[in-house]
Amino acid sequence: MGRAFYLLSTIPSKGERKSLDLYSHSAKTKWGSVMIDLRIRGLREGLSSAEALAEHLRLTRAVVDSESKVKGHYVRRWNAQLRPNAHLLLDLHAECCGLNKLQQVGVLLNVLLDYHKSYAVQISTFCDLIAHIKSSRHVLPERVLEGKSDRDHPLWVSSLFADVHELGSYIFDVMKDHLLVFDLKTPQGVRRIESHLMALREMFSFQTFTKKLNQKYKSLGKALETSIMSAVTKAFTFLNGKAEPLRNDPEDRLRAFKGLIQHWLHQTQRILKDIVPLFKEVGVDYITWYFRALDPLLCSEATWLERYRAADEESHTVTFELYLSMRDIANLTEHVKDETVRAELKIRNYHLWFSPMVANWISRAQSLCRQYIDKAIQIDKVIQVTDEATFSSSAVDTKGFLLQVGNFWKHLQWPRAAESYSYTAAIVQHICDCAVYYAGQVYTRVTNEDIYKDGQFHASEKLCIILNNMCHLQQALEGLSETLELEKYYQWLEEQDAQTENSSEKVAAIARSLISNLLKNADEDIGNKISLTVQNISEKVNLERFFQDMLRSDKDSVDEETVVPLLDYLTHNLQTLGDFLLPQVLYRVLANFWATCVHTIAACIPNIPKKPGNNYIPR
C-alpha cells in the first residue's frame, strides 16, 4: 500500500510499540498508518554462516531494489550510491548476523552484478568494491591468501571469487567491443573506458585474485592486447558491412570508402589523444596493437583503388581527399614505437594505390585554373589594394587563387623522393603556366586597347592597371617558394639522399635546379610580356610632330606655339603614369619613354631646314 520510514538509531534498546505514518511510493501522499511492535533480540542464536549470508542477501536485494528506482523505474547505469539510512540498515543487519565487512561487501557485489545484467551499474562502483575487498583481505582465511586448493575455501569465499571472475569476464567482453560500445567523441565515453580499465587493474593488483585470473587470461596486458585487436576487427567489420550495398557502383564505393577512411582517421586521432594514455597506465601499448589489427583490414579493402579510374571532376576531388586521409593515417603510424612492427605496416605504402591518379589530378587542376582565370578577367573591376597603386580584381583574384593552389598542393607530400620531385616540379610548372597564361591574356587586352584620343596617344588609368596586374602576378611567383615551403622540401630530399645507397643520384640537387629554372623561366616570360607592353606603349607615343613643329617654327614663337603643347602633352601622360603605376613598372616605362624621345629627336635632325648663310646647327 505504501512506505513507512523507521529510524533504527532512535529505537530503545528493549524495543518499542509505535505507530508510523504510511505514504504512497510516488506522490508521497499520506494513506494511513501502520503499527510496529519491535523487540530487540541481539545476535541471532543458532544461525549458520550460510543462513546468515542468505538473510543478508535478501535484505540487500530489497534495499538495492528500493534505492535504484526513480518514479517507479529502475535507473540505467546506476551509480549505486545508497542513502545513509540504507547503509546503516545493512551495517546493523550484518552485525546482527555476525558477518564481517568482507562478507558484507561480497553480498553487495553479488546483488549489484545481478542488477548490472539487467540495467547496468556504473563500473566505477565495482572499482570501489574491489578496493574494499583488498583493504579487508586480512579477514580472509590464511589458506585462501596462500592460494591453496579451492576445495579448502569457505563457501562465501568461493562465491566471492566467482563473482570477481564473472565481473572480470564481463569487463573483458566489453573491452573486446569497446570501439562500438563507447562513444569516444564524448568525455563520458572516455571516462567509461577509464572505469573499466581501473576495475581490471584493481582486480589484477590483488595477488589472491591474480592467480585465478591469470589461469584464464595469462596476464592483464595480454588480455587487453587481445581485446584491442578484437575491438578493431569488430568495429571495422561492422562499419564496412554498412557500406556493402554500395559496392556495385564504383563511384558509390569510392565515396563510401572515403567515409570509412575518414572515420578511422578521426578515430585514431581521438585514440592517440584520450585512450592511449589510459592504457599506458596499465602498461599496454595501445597504438601498436591497434595498428596491427587495422593495417591488414584497411589495406585489403584499399586494393581495388589500383584499378579505379575517376569518371568525372568530382571523382578526381574525392580521390585526392581520400589520398590525404590515407596519408594522415600513415603518418600516425609514427607513434608505433617498435620499428620492426612499424616497418611491416603496409599502409605506409599507401601512395602506391594513387600513383596512376597524380598526373590526372595536376592536369585537371590546370584546366580548372585556366577556366577560373578566364572568368576572373571577364568580371574584372578596378579595386584599391594598397596605397601605392591600383589593380583590377582579376589580378588580385588570380594571385590569391594561385597561392591557394600552392597551399593545396603543398599537402601532397609524396613519400618517395624519386617520384616526389617530379610531381613537385609538375605542380610548380602548373602554377607558373597559369601565371604566364594570365599575363598573356592581359597583354592581348593591351594590344587591343583603344589608347588614342584625337589621333594622339594618351596614358590612362586603365592602361596603368593592366601593367600593374602583370607585375602583381610576377610578385606572386616570387612568393611561391615560401608558399610551397621549397627550402624545407629540399632539406627533406637531402635527408632521403643521405639514406639512399646509390649516392650518384642526388635528387635534392636535381629538384632544386629544375624547380629554380621553372620559376626563373616563368618570371622571364612575364617580364617579357611587361617589356613588350611597355615597348608597345612607347612606340605609340608620337613625339615627332612636336619636334617637327619646333624645328620649323621661328625663334620668337617657339615657346608658345611648340614647346608648351609638348610640355603639356608630356606632363599629362607622365602625371597619369606616376599616379597609377607601381614604381618598378613606372621606371621601366620612363626608361622606354625617354629612349623614344631621344630616338625621335635623332630621327628629326636630318630634316632640319638650312637657312642661307647659316651652318647646320641642331636646335
TrEMBL record:
<dbReference type="GO" id="GO:0006887">
    <property type="term" value="P:exocytosis"/>
</dbReference>
<protein>
    <submittedName>
        <fullName>Protein unc-13 homolog 4B</fullName>
    </submittedName>
</protein>
<dbReference type="GO" id="GO:0099503">
    <property type="term" value="C:secretory vesicle"/>
</dbReference>
<feature type="domain" description="MHD2">
    <location>
        <begin position="560"/>
        <end position="619"/>
    </location>
</feature>
<dbReference type="InterPro" id="IPR052095">
    <property type="entry name" value="UNC-13_domain"/>
</dbReference>
<feature type="domain" description="MHD1">
    <location>
        <begin position="320"/>
        <end position="442"/>
    </location>
</feature>
<dbReference type="Pfam" id="PF06292">
    <property type="entry name" value="MUN"/>
</dbReference>
<keyword id="KW-0963">Cytoplasm</keyword>
<keyword id="KW-0268">Exocytosis</keyword>
<keyword id="KW-0967">Endosome</keyword>
<dbReference type="GO" id="GO:0055037">
    <property type="term" value="C:recycling endosome"/>
</dbReference>
<dbReference type="InterPro" id="IPR014770">
    <property type="entry name" value="Munc13_1"/>
</dbReference>
<dbReference type="InterPro" id="IPR010439">
    <property type="entry name" value="MUN_dom"/>
</dbReference>
<dbReference type="InterPro" id="IPR014772">
    <property type="entry name" value="Munc13_dom-2"/>
</dbReference>
